[in-house]
Amino acid sequence: MDAKAAEQIRVRLMLLEALVVMSVSLRYVDRHTADPTLDIWRMVSRDVRSWFDQLATEEAFDSVTLEAESARLMSEIEKHVNRAAGPPPYAGV
To answer: Sign of dihedral through CA atoms 51, 54, 59, 60?
Structure first.
């Protein structure tokens, strides 16, 4: 694979990840809007861990890589939710 093709794949994956983050985040923002007392931050954490745990059992992925990607994706989702719904209740504590 040449450098241009590799870069196209990398950019496409980044765009797909951005779309996933935005679409997943909307679910939590909607829940927070409906019930501001709901602990959406715990829900995000639980759901992301669950998704990656499922990947770990279904596929032969490296657990260290999965853990790192889980944390990175969780951080991106949380940033997006914070922008849309406001900071988590523990922010600044």
So the answer is: positive
